[in-house]
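A.,

Following up on our hallway conversation. Structure tokens first:
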């Protein structure tokens, strides 16, 4: 995805060199950060010959909608377990789109009860001979995170090509923390001195430096299992600052 210099906003903030990685353009049909994760996750679902994909999120979740859109394109049935959120126009649109695109929707009172709901639905499907492919909220697991390891390596390549100077800091939203963990891991793997900073948009219990460190280490282990030539990286909570 391209990197765009934000001249007007940069001037407003007093920043001469202020850029945006345009991951909203990650797909012409529906962009955003979920696409990079689903590239790996839905490929895994196809590899395992699953017929359906189940995921969780708020009823306005961009992740659930992205999962619905791209599952349908790949011939997979989407199942969404949804929890309440504040009533917002975009959430209403996402919910209606999920209905229109044939997502099988189930409701849970909160994220705690969503886990029990997922288990119940999975058991019901299993008794009918189905085994849905389960994706955690935000597409965050050791496999999905690889999408943003790729993004970090991609930024490093754009730096190498002279498209953008090496950033001092990269800021990203931190919710399920997969984007943050993968981006920081990719940047560090590429040898850049850039600091990746997560801006917390969800509960502190879920979004903290320890949680992101655990995710990054998990994905690094997966990469090293797939390719023994990948070197170890020294990772600590200092590599994952959260605002």
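Then the amino acids I'd put at each of the 243 positions:
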């Amino acid at each position: 995805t391209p990197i765009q210099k934000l001249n007007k906003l940069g001037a407003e903030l007093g920043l001469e060199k202020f850029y945006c990685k345009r991951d909203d353009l990650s797909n012409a049909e529906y962009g955003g950060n979920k696409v990079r994760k689903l590239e790996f996750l839905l490929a895994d679902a196809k590899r395992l010959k699953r017929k359906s994909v189940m995921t969780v999120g708020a009823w306005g979740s961009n992740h659930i909608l992205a999962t619905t859109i791209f599952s349908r394109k790949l011939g997979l049935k989407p199942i969404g377990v949804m929890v309440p959120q504040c009533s917002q126009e975009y959430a209403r649109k996402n919910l209606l789109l999920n209905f229109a695109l044939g997502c099988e929707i189930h409701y849970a009172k909160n994220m705690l009860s969503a886990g029990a709901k997922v288990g119940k639905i999975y058991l019901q499907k299993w008794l009918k001979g189905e085994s849905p492919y389960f994706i955690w909220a935000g597409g965050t697991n050791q496999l999905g995170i690889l999408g943003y390891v790729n993004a970090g390596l991609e930024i490093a390549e754009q730096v190498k090509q002279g498209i953008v100077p090496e950033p001092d800091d990269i800021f990203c939203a931190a919710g399920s923390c997969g984007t943050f963990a993968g981006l920081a891991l990719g940047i560090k793997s590429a040898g850049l001195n850039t600091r990746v900073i997560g801006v917390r948009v969800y509960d502190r219990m879920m979004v903290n430096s320890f949680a992101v460190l655990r995710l990054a280490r998990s994905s690094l282990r997966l990469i090293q299992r797939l390719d023994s030539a990948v070197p170890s990286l020294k990772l600590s909570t200092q590599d994952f600052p959260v605002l």
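The chain has a mean pLDDT of 96. Curious whether your intuition agrees with the design.

B.
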